[in-house]
Every structure is written in C-alpha cells, then in structure tokens.
C-alpha cells in the first residue's frame, strides 16, 4: 500500500494556495510534535522552540508506513534540525525532508507560519 | 652497490627483505629476489583459508608495489639451477647469470613424500603451495561429480590436520591417517592427543592412528589405502602432509656442507660453510635441527640481514618451539618442553572429558619453575603460561592454580600483562617485546592499537598475542594520561558516566541546561533519552517529567508496536497473580479488543491499544490493583521465579516471596539498559536466574547471588558474586551493585557488557561492592534507599493529572483515532495488516 505516500508531496512556501489553521500555539508542546488532520492527510507539526522555528512534515514514516513521526524526537545533526522516527530511529531533515541515515526514502515537508499565536500549515489544495 | 641475492620468495625470504630494508644503511645494497613460484610471497601458515574462500591476493604478504617502493628487484617464475662460488655468480633456468656479493638461500622445503608404492597414482597430492591447492580443488570437484565422498590425509601433524579441514571444507568426508600412535606427536602427549582426537571426531573427521600404509590401491587413480594387516581404507583422494624435506639441492650441487638427513648447515650467524652464503628458514640446519615454524624462520632472517650489514646479532642457542593455534576449531597450544617428566620435574594434568579440555604443565618439584606444557580445548591460558615460562617468573604457591585458576569465579591466576618485565617477548612471531610495545606509545610514535601494529608488527603473525598487546596499549595510553573516550554523540564530548557526575554535581534538572553548559546543538535521539534516564536515576523522576526528551516508549508509558499502536504490560511481581486479577486482565483485553500473549517474564502483554485508549485501559487496571510494569522503560522489567518450597517438593527456600520482594524494591528505577532478575529455589534453576542481570539461587545455608547475565543476541551466564549469604546481604549487595552499574555504565550497555569492560573485571567489582575498596558503599546504599523510598506508579500519576493526559491523543485538532490502522485475523485473535 505504497499509495498512502502518494498523498504527500513537499510544498514550498511560495506555491502555497491554502493556509490551514492547525491550532493555537498552546496546542503544540515545545520541542516536540503534534499531529493534525487535514482532509485525508496526517501532518506532524513541530514547535521547535529551542531554535525558535516551526516545521511540518508527513506523519507517516516512509520506512514502514506507520503514522508516527509526530511522536518522534526532535534534534539536530550538524546544525540541521531533524526528526527521529520512534519506530526504528530513521532520521529526516525537517528542512527538506531528506533522509539523514543514508536510506533512499525521504519525507514531504510543509511550510508553517504563526500569526497571532495561531499556527498555519501551507498546502496546495 | 653491494649485491645481495635472495633465492626463494617464501615467508622467510620475504621477511629477510622486510628486515633488511628497515635497517640503517640498506641504501648501499641492491637486493634481488628469485622465486620459482609465479606469485609474490604469501602466507603459508594460513593456507587452508584459501579453501575457505580467501584469494591468493588475500594471502599475499605484500602489495604489488612493495618491492618496487623498496628498490628490490623481484623475479618470479625463475628457478636458480647453479651456483658458482668461485666467481660468485648464480645461473637460472632461463640461462641468465647474476653476480652476488652475498647470497641468501631461503629455498624452504618441499613436502616429504614417503616411499610408498603407488604415491604417483592419480588423485594423490601434496599440500604445500597455492598450485597444489588449486589441483586438489579441481580434482575434488571432479570426483564429487562421480559420486565420490571419501578423502584421506596422510599425516596427523599440524599441517595434516589443517589439510584435513581443507578437505572437509571441499565437501568430502576427511580421514586422517597417522603412523604414530597419537596426533601431533611432536607437540602433544597421549592424553592431549586423545582429547584432540575426540573433538575432531565429533566434527565427523575420521582418525586412524598407528597405521602403516603398505601401498596405494587403484588402477590409474587411487581407490584406497592398504594398511599393514590387510586393512583397506577406501578413499578417492589422498593429500600427503607427512612432513617436510629441506630444498637443499642448490647447496649440494655447489658443495656446501649439508646434514645427513638434509638441510644446509649454518652457524649462529646463519652462515653456511661458505662465508658469503647464508641459509635461513626451513632449508637451514641449525643445531642439527630443521625448524618448521615461522617464528624461528623470521628470527633467522633478521640475524642474516644483520650479519650481512656487519651487525653482531646471532641466533639464540635454544629455539623456542611453542605454538598456539586453532585446529579445525579446536584450540591447541604447546610450549617449552611439553613432555619433560623426571626426578626433578612433575607434570600436573587436568582433564575434563565433559567439556573437552586437557591441560598439562610441567613444574620443577620445588614448585618454582614452569618448564613447559600442553593445552587442548581451551588455550586461553597460553599467553600467561608462556610468559611465566619464558621469563622464568615465580609460580603461585599452588602450581595447579596455573591451570585450575578459574575455581570459585576467580579470574586467571597470573596477573595482567602489565606485571611482565619489559624484556618479555609478547609477539613471538615478530619477536616484539613488551618494552617495544609500551615505548611506541609513551614516546609518541604511536597513538592507537592500529599504529602499534603497523610500527612494531606485533600481532601480524599468528595473532595469538592480540589480547595482550591490546591490554598493553591500553595500559601505556593510560600511563601517559591518554584515554580513548567513548563520547555519547555529536552533541556531547562526554561519556555517560561523566555526564552523570556533571548532572549530579551541578544539580541540573533540565536537558537544555545540560546541553547549554556541557554540549552543543539541539540534542538528538541518543543524548536526550540518556539525560532523561540520568535524571530518573538521580532524582527518581518518573517518565512523566521531561516528556519531551524521553524515548518514545517512556514518553507514552507503553511499548510502541509494528503498526504504531501500543502494548500494555501491568506488573505481576514474581509472576504470582490471583484468579480475580487474571479475570480483570481478560476483561480489559476483551473490552479494548487487544491481542494477548504470555511473556517470557511471567506476565501478560496486551497488544493493539491505540494511543487514545491507553489512559482508560490503565484506569481500569489501576482501580483493580495493578500498577505499571515498566515494560517500556530502561528499568527493572521483572523478577522471574520458580514456585519455590511453598509447593515444590524439591524447593529449598521461598523463591516466589523473594522474587516479589526484589521486584518491588527495584521497580521503576531507571538504568542504562533494561534489567531482569530471577530467583530459583534450588539448583535445578527453573527460573533461569543465571540468564538474568541478577539471579538468586537457594543453596544449603543461604542464597547464591549471581550477576551480569543475559539472554538475547549474545547470551551470557551470570557469574557468582557471593555464596551462601542471607537475604539481607543479598539486598545489601544488590543495592550496591545496581547503583554502581547505574552510575558507571555507558548508554544502552547491559550489565554483562559493562562487567566485561570494567577494568579489573569481577575481582575488582567484588572489591568495590563487597569489600568497599573505594569507600563508596555507604553512598551507593544511601542513593538506592532514596530511589526505593520515592517510588511512584507513573500511570497513576498520569490519571491523577489531566494535564499529563493531553499527550495520549493522536490528533491535536481532532478526537479521532489514527485511521491508518487495519487488522487481519490471527488464529482466534488479530494482528496488524502489513503494508
């Protein structure tokens, strides 16, 4: 069922057509993730307070397809913010979704903006 | 330029070149090497590995550019046919003539083929060169296709047994045929040979001793070997490995002095009867002996190189024939004089047919000196024994401790390599002393073990001295204040133990405090849970604190499973449970549709709980008297027990009560890795306590406490810490042991690995936690008391504080559960559908 991954394609900030309101910043614990539901998608949103940055990516780990990345651990590798999957500790860059362990799968990332304490995630639809 | 010609490009000829170009002034000499084989010198000692898949290039002793880089001319496939000593020239089969100032004969030996009728038949081989091996392989392949299954090796010596392994690796049934009444007659006595024989026979290799072969049967090709007494062994191939004969033809034709049974006679300078000609290795007859081992050959090479360059090094009078090797998977070693036994010398023999171990040491009757010995089945004492023997070191008061040292859990009876004198030869193949190894580190030439190997060549021969060299390198590094650090990850240049101390001293309570003061970056999946675990170990914080930096299982207080759902394990201390509580577990499983399975730790695991359901499941369990089983934590899992003397007719004590007490004492405590325990009420050991991090077994007069065992990928039996102690003492030692482990172990290091790495091993650990050698027992006990006294069930905490429950929701913006989960039936239950 590879097709659950087909739903997730990286979106860059200048092509966003819909800013979806994911919640208030209080809903997202600091330095870890929370999962939001948008249409039929599950998106992991990270309040990386330590770096004063927000990130969003697909919640599905492309390794074994579990919806778990929001429950993973944030961190950095050589300064690049990353997320480690809780299942097998595969790690992905939160900036471009690339895999940092040398595996050939990567994740889709989405832009996040915070306006008046509300958190928005950018989509194409 | 002074011209040196080396005839022969085997191991010793190569070593001569290597030694020569490492000496000062070698630039004034031109070395030319002639080898009749088509390839560069290769490692004949490990020839059988060619069958096991190593290539000729793997076995090569040098790289293809080595000779050129060292300005040595190498001529392969060129055979020297004559020496003209008057004109100082040699003549080759290609009709070339070369002049020399010095000539070094390193022609080695050929396989000795006994004069048996029919040895020229097809299918009879010798075992000496890579070409021999190629021929053997090709023939084996051919006859196997015709249904042949049996092959024999003539000769039960070192090389013969190697050949037997090679034949077996080719997929044939191997038979070893030996004329003498025992195997390896030069190295082993009867008892050792018997032990080796039974071990080799276990591997399906036939051993035929006392066999005098009359003729080789068969028309053109071999079909069998006929022994004396009309005894026929049917075989389709024969490999002869019955000894060596020196390749002394060149010496003979040019009139050098040779021995009656072959070999070019040399003095202690390796000089032959012609002062411009030297002979080294297996062609040289020194002290009326041919030495078929690589170590004396290498020493001869060094002596000859020194002599040619006007040095004064000479060959020692007595040549050591000690060897240690693994033969067909069986460890065998023999050192000094293995057989000596007379009015002044007594042999001490230990024989254990159950484990297949034979050990013999020959000790002077006054108990002061070790003269030699034999080890079969377990040669781990070889290095220590060899050092005692070769350095004439003092023996323990009871010399039998030399081979029985392992009694009562004691480690070896000889001290570590650091007790040896600097002159002690550690690597006998390359003749490297302890002093040379340690010096290379302390004078800054080398930094690591690898550097030392490169510089001194130690361990590059047979490799048997590797553990000792590693120990010495470590000790030398330490002596100059250098230690190899095992830092945690890119964010911290500290070990776990250092971080533990930093947190404790500075009273840090937050991950970012620690990383800001002592690390860099934002942390990661390695250091974050590690620091969280340290907080727990110091302050007994439950996993509900530091939620962000807990590993996923600790964050959600459950074990994440294949489809991202969780499994739930309530504590069932000691595996004892009432029917009422069992029913509760069953009802919870039914209500939440959970797959249930009994675990190896005498508990029940409930699988397939969604994140959102976890709090409700635990509310019911806790209301019915359960508590968290910490199956998700790096903490005590369970203490397994047998039923004990309450019910069992063999039980000597109440193991179940003890297991419950132990489990309740240490429950919830976070440690570097998971901890498991066991308690058995008698030595039948139904609780498998010795497969745990700690195990207690009832014996006459108390309990035996074992520590540092585990199952898993690399099973280890726990080792005896203390015998026949009472319960109170078990708790005392356990408190100290666990706390010491928690303080000092690396991240995710189980107790067994920790003990292996602990300097001084079990002896040292006993000193620390039984005899309080470093004076920390009181502190350890107090720290443990603090942890035990502040236990709280973390699931109960969650249910009491709605704030803590927020995380058990799959979506931030919806109350729905994860819709990506599907199940398929599994027997009468269910399992996750695979993607």
TrEMBL record, chain A:
Pfam families with a match to the protein in the record: Rieske_2
Enzyme Commission designation: 1.7.1.4
CDD domains named among the record's database cross-references: Rieske_NirD
SUPFAM superfamilies per the UniProt record, alphabetical: ISP domain (SSF50022)
GO biological processes: nitrate assimilation
Stretches assigned to the Rieske domain: 20-121
Domain of life assignment: Bacteria
One Gene Ontology molecular-function label: 2 iron, 2 sulfur cluster binding
Keywords, sorted A to Z: 2Fe-2S, Heme, Iron, Iron-sulfur, Metal-binding, Nitrate assimilation, Oxidoreductase
Nucleotide-binding as UniProt keyword: no
PROSITE patterns: RIESKE
Alphabetical list of PANTHER family matching this protein: NITRITE REDUCTASE (NADH) LARGE SUBUNIT (PTHR43809:SF1)
Name of protein: Nitrite reductase
Organism taxonomic ancestry: Bacteria, Pseudomonadati, Bacteroidota, Flavobacteriia, Flavobacteriales
UniProtKB/TrEMBL annotation, chain B:
Keyword field contains DNA-binding: no
Coiled-coil ranges (or none): none
SUPFAM superfamilies recorded: FAD/NAD(P)-binding domain, Nitrite and sulphite reductase 4Fe-4S domain-like, Nitrite/Sulfite reductase N-terminal domain-like
Transmembrane segments: none
Domain FAD/NAD(P)-binding: 3-306
Cofactor notes: Binds 1 [4Fe-4S] cluster per subunit.
Pfam family, one: NIR_SIR
A Gene Ontology BP annotation from the UniProt entry: nitrate assimilation
Nitrite/Sulfite reductase ferredoxin-like domain location: 561-623
GO molecular function: 2 iron, 2 sulfur cluster binding; 4 iron, 4 sulfur cluster binding; flavin adenine dinucleotide binding; heme binding; metal ion binding; NADP binding; nitrite reductase [NAD(P)H] activity
Family named by the database record: Belongs to the nitrite and sulfite reductase 4Fe-4S domain family.
Protein's name according to its UniProt entry: Nitrite reductase
Lineage: Bacteria, Pseudomonadati, Bacteroidota, Flavobacteriia, Flavobacteriales
């Amino acid at each position: 069922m590879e097709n659950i991954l087909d739903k997730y394609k990286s979106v860059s900030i200048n092509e966003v057509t819909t800013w979806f309101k994911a919640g208030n910043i209080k809903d997202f614990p600091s330095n870890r993730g929370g999962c939001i539901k948008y249409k039929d998608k599950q998106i992991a949103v990270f309040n990386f307070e330590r770096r004063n940055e927000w990130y969003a990516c697909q919640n599905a780990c492309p390794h074994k397809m579990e919806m778990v990345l929001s429950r993973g651990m944030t961190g950095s590798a050589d300064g690049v913010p990353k997320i480690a999957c809780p299942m097998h500790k595969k790690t992905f860059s939160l900036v471009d979704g690339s895999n940092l362990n040398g595996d050939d799968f990567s994740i889709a990332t989405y832009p996040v903006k915070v306006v008046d304490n509300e958190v928005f995630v950018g989509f194409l639809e | 330029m002074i011209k040196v010609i080396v005839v022969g490009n085997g191991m010793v000829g190569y070593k001569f070149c290597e030694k020569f170009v490492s000496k000062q002034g070698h630039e004034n000499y031109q070395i030319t090497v002639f080898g009749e084989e088509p390839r560069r010198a290769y490692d004949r000692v490990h020839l059988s590995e060619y069958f096991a898949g190593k290539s000729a290039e793997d076995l090569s002793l040098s790289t293809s550019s080595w000779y050129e880089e060292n300005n040595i001319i190498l001529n392969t496939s060129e055979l020297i046919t004559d020496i003209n000593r008057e004109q100082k020239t040699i003549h080759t089969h290609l009709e070339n003539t070369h002049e020399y100032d010095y000539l070094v004969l390193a022609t080695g030996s050929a396989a000795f083929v006994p004069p048996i009728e029919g040895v020229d038949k097809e299918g009879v081989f010798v075992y000496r060169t890579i070409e021999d091996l190629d021929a053997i392989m090709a023939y084996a392949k051919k006859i196997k296709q015709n249904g042949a299954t049996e092959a024999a090796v003539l000769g039960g010596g070192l090389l013969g047994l190697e050949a037997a392994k090679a034949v077996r690796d080719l997929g044939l049934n191997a038979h070893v045929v030996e004329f003498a009444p025992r195997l390896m007659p030069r190295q082993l006595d009867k008892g050792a040979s018997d032990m080796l024989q039974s071990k080799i026979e276990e591997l399906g290799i036939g051993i035929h001793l006392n066999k005098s072969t009359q003729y080789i049967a068969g028309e053109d090709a071999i079909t069998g070997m006929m022994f004396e007494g009309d005894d026929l062994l049917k075989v389709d191939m024969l490999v002869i490995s019955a000894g060596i004969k020196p390749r002394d033809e060149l010496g003979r034709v040019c009139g050098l002095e040779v021995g009656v049974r072959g070999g070019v006679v040399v003095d202690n300078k390796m000089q032959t009867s012609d002062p411009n000609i030297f002979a080294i290795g297996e062609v040289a007859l020194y002290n009326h002996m041919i030495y078929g081992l690589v170590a004396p050959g290498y020493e001869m090479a060094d002596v000859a190189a020194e002599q040619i360059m006007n040095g004064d090094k000479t060959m020692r009078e007595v040549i050591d024939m000690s060897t240690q090797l693994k033969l067909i998977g069986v460890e065998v070693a023999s050192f000094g004089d293995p057989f000596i036994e007379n009015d002044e010398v007594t042999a001490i023999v230990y024989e254990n047919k159950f484990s297949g171990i034979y050990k013999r040491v020959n000790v002077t009757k006054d108990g002061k000196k070790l003269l030699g010995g034999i080890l079969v089945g377990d040669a781990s004492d070889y290095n220590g024994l060899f050092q005692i023997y070769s350095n004439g070191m003092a023996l323990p008061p009871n010399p039998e401790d030399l081979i029985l040292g392992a009694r009562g859990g004691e480690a070896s009876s000889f001290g570590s390599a650091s007790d040896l004198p600097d002159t002690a030869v550690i690597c006998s193949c390359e003749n490297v002393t302890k002093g040379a190894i340690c010096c290379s580190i302390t004078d800054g030439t080398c930094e690591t073990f690898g550097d030392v190997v490169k510089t001194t060549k130690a361990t590059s021969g047979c490799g048997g001295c590797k553990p000792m060299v590693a120990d010495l390198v470590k000790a030398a590094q330490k002596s100059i204040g250098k230690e190899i650090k095992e830092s945690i990850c890119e964010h911290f240049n500290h070990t776990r133990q250092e971080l533990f101390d930093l947190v404790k001293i500075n009273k840090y309570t937050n991950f970012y405090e620690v990383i800001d003061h002592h690390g860099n970056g934002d942390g990661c999946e390695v250091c974050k849970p590690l620091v969280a675990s340290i907080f727990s170990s110091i302050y007994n914080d439950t996993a509900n604190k530091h939620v962000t930096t807990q590993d996923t299982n600790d964050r959600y207080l459950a074990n994440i499973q294949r489809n991202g759902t969780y499994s739930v394990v309530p504590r069932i201390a000691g595996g004892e449970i009432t029917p009422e509580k069992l029913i509760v577990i069953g009802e919870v499983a039914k209500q939440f549709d959970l797959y249930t399975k009994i675990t190896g730790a005498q508990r029940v695991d409930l699988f397939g709980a969604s994140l959102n359901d976890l709090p409700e499941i635990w509310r019911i369990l806790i209301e019915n008297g359960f508590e968290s089983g910490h199956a998700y934590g790096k903490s005590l899992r369970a203490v397994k027990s047998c039923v004990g003397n309450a019910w069992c007719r063999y039980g000597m004590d109440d193991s179940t009560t003890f297991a419950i007490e132990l489990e309740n004492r240490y429950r919830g405590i976070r440690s570097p890795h998971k901890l498991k325990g066991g308690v058995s009420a008698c030595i039948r050991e139904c609780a498998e306590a010795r497969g745990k991090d700690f195990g207690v077994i009832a014996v006459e007069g108390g309990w035996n406490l074992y520590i540092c065992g585990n199952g898993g990928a690399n099973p280890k039996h726990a080792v005896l810490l203390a015998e026949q102690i009472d319960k109170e003492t078990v708790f005392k030692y356990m408190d100290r042991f666990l706390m010491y482990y928690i303080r000092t172990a690396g991240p995710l290091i189980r107790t067994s690995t920790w003990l292996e790495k602990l300097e001084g091993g079990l002896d040292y650990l006993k000193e620390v936690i039984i005899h309080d050698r470093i004076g920390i027992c009181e502190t350890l006990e107090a720290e443990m008391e603090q942890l035990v006294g502040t236990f709280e069930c973390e699931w109960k905490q969650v249910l009491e504080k709605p704030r803590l429950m927020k995380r058990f929701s799959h979506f931030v913006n919806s109350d729905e559960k994860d819709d990506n989960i599907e199940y398929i039936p599994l027997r009468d239950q269910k399992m996750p559908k695979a993607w």
